[in-house]
Design goal:
This protein has 544 residues and is of the alpha/beta class. It is built from 19 helices and 16 strands.
Length: 544
Amino acid sequence: MQALIALLLIVWSWSPVQAEDDTTLRVFVFAGQSNMVGSDSKVQDIRRFPTFAGLETPQPGVRFSYCLGREDKLTSDGWVDLQPVDNVVGPELSFARKVTQNIKAPIAIIKVAAGGTHLGGDWNSDDPSGFKMYPLALQWIRDALADLEQQGIKYRLEGFMWHQGENDMFNPEYMDNYGGNLKNFLASWRRDLNAPDLRFYVGELCTKTIWGMDLRPRMYAISLGQKEVTDNDPLAQYIPTSHVGVEIGGGVGLHYHYGTLGQLEHGVNYADAYLRGIGQLEEGARPLKKWPYAQGAPVKLFVLAGHRNMEGEIAFVQDLARLDGQSELLKDDHTIAFKYNIGGGYKVSNGWEPLGPAGFYDTFGPELSFGATLQNNGVSNIAIAKFTHSGSQIIDWTPEGSEAKSRNLYPAFMSFIRESIEELEDRGHQVELAGIFYHLGENDMSWGPFRKGAPKRLMSFVTQSRKDLGLPSLKWYVSQQLPTDEEQVKGIDVTAELETAVASDEHVIHIKVFDLPEQEKQLVIDTRGIVWLGETIAKKYLAG
């Protein structure tokens, strides 16, 4: 009975009536380590990402109190307008804009974060060590709230956004006990802030970074600890972040931090989770006007799959609108049925939709120009199914997978293809699976062990997919962009090894997309390049 009463209190405390209170100031706490601070981001880079234009300027009306850093702290003098601090971009900027666009109530943000800090030590509420972040943050938050009270401002603590865990990976005790430490951390905040119903939003560690590759088992251990808590705490939610952008570093290109784009997308993730929880997130429907194929007509199904560039990490619709002759791609094409599962399931289509821009953060992939090129060359009755995860590596797509079991994509990908075929067949169509178009893992090309293992893993993926789909002659079109040319990896001639691997398989078509339009960054392909990629792989299909 006590458990039932507690549950009813939770439900009541988050009822629509409370959520729709438009006068009480809603206060959010942002805390964690470097990927909460905004390390390796730059305010001037915001202009490169049109979805987030304007976030380099202050947001009047959004109160902001901050204490950032370890030894040399940057602090606000009381409450200020929300704005970038010290030329750094944090997730609070995009979070605030998204939230204020969807609710009428005023909001405030308190941010306390420092790079290189541990939950097991610095943020330990019972026995803090190192930079003693927990007592520091607690005092900072209490003082900021007391200031609101002195001003006579009615407020309520609305949510606590937490992104941390990378540094706990390096201490075996902290890593093994992350789940227990996090559970105690949440309970301590609720107790010390006298907020028993405080909601927590726990950000996933980004698997797209170099640590997501070379420290895969350790990151997996942290994720298990996080999920242990969020699965059992009705007021805590796990927020996927592996699909967001990651800064392109020097050398091979891999990085440890989200950087500017990733930070802004990180903030949108938190905002979407919060708004969805209070029923205030508008998620636009994209229904087909009518089913595009005649009754009983055969349908060619094209499956697109891959990582960062098949997803379209930095291909923005605003930039597409400025490309000569490409504006038609912005329009939904109701003659092509399109379904998708992108970001490792972060965004999934509502059944079959018209082919059109459908990525998160106003992005799109090569499917737009791919479909248009096929149609313009006389291919009719086209359906496209897209399955991507930009935070994955090739090993995640293999039937064997890795020790990080929650990152394995192969079973879900096979189910996605089967369901796509069955849905079309259930409508009376004879379905031809015209091919799987897979863009080879970009990050894999930049880390020696994964670069070396790429050909074998690819062929394992191809071979088992044919067996499981019952299609021994299924064509695979494998596109490969120019691999990283750096001393530490270029000794592994991955292109030659791929050619050798596919040479004995007449149904694998290796597409070298080495003459992409000039790119600003390695690994990721920009808007012009993504359009070109879609056209190029479609032309390879048309060539037979």
